[in-house]
Amino acid sequence: MGSELARRLAAAAVCAVAVCTLTTRVDAEAAAWWTRVALAGSDLSQVRADGATVIVRTRGGSTLMSTDSARSFSPVQGNPQVTVPPQTRSGDDTWIVTSAGSVLHAHGSASLAPDPDSPDLGPGAHLLAAPASLPGVVVAVATDGTVWRRDMAGGWGRALLLLPAGLTSGVPRITAVAAFTQPVTNTVYLSTDGYSVLLSTDGGDDWIHANPGLPDSVAALAADSASRVLYAATPDGLYMHGLQAFPAPPAYHDAALALRWLGTALVALLAAASAVVALSRAMMPRRRTR
Amino acid sequence: MRSAVWWPCAATLVLGTAALGAALLVPYTFSDPNGVDPYVARISGVAVLLLVVAYARADLASTRPVLLALTAVTASFTLLAATPQILVDLFGDRAPSGDAQVFWASLAQLVATLALMWLAWRRTPPTLVPKLRIEKLGWLAAAVAVGASALLVLVMLALPASLLGRLALQPVALTRDLPWLWPANALQGLSQELQFRGLLMGALERVMSKGWANVAQACFFGFSHLAVNYQGPVAPFVPVTIAVGLVLGWMVQRTGSLWPAVIVHAVADILITIGVVSGLYGF
Question: ipTM for the complex?
Fold first, then answer.
């Protein structure tokens, strides 16, 4: 009786595994979140991108340029500085951080004026980004490291405060903030020199750690709307992220879903039945032996 | 060994854990269950089946207290995970916000836990009724709760941020979320302490020493976290949660009260909500 039951349970298990194995669909793997595209081992401090043209600056003071989407780089004569101006355009809006740390805004051809209720970012603040797909939204970084966000209605609020990396180490520095200037995604990206890259898809309210594939230290970011690519300058070369959906469990339908449920239920039933058999044996009184 | 008083509970915990582990992990070898069973209903099914059989058969009566605890852990977790989707299915556009859904899910988890506690209290022989230790708080327990919570904050700040994922505070999001999430975290802490340090450890203590009861519940507490974060690799998290389970169990045994563990557990969950920045694959 017991062995018959065991045989049936084993047969059911084999059938379950066979059904589920045969019906398993192998989804095409999503592209890696970050991949190194060039200049492995080079300590980069800055990057700018415009279509197929990508310019990087090394900590050693060299400026390199690629005209084939970062496949190959060649030196730029005179090694000019690569700078990112403290301003951005988003649709018809222009946003600027003054040298004193004030945020100025202009819509269309209007002249620049202080944005009402904008915070004082502090002298020298220069990091800001505005995703074109969220008109009115701005993310700016103050000199004390506070990340501010402006919502679409014009209200400003503290969006992000980095915490110390450890007991003896300090708070990582925010090195760049970037967004696409064409409406290709809502995402705003923020790089740090300790926590790699964080991103927000809702205009700076909520943030996600988007580091897979990247070093902990990222010196600069550059978003290129034409190629839908984000570049990251790091101490170990230039990395690239192509726009893609977030990783998510696959969704099954119809027969694929039904068969998977069947297999899962069979496994659970088999596990429960095995446990009942084992418990029954375990609870039997011990046989006396002479 | 089978005649030992601890044998039925110990065997039930080991075999029950093995069955739950098989039901949880075996499907990973042939399919991706996340897209099919994201609420791990399969392990709740196993626990409920075992409990039904235990109540149907007199020879398995001694297994009931531990199986009640395992059912409380698994079934209430499935309810916690699935309630937001149930609310959306029931109310459509009128469903509460995401944060409110988490609160109602946490409340549902507590109600399910209390229902199984009631079953344990009413349907278990008096000698096997779990020691829940919910009657008293006391000055010692209150002091331990405050001190341990403060220590927890210091430890979390001292450990490397990348290890814990406690990268940043998000003031805008916290202002929006915390009114719902801190009560939700508190309810989850209460439910889980009632399950692990109340029902399970309390049942084991009836038949074995406090030390072994604590080790056993802490191991189950650690392994049960394999079911929690299915979006990423969590195996390294198991030894950490076993250690946390040991500390919480020790606190309960030393103070004679479940409440310090409830408070510390709730504080830990709230700190995770406040300081941990989730990744692309979840926490």
Answer: 0.90
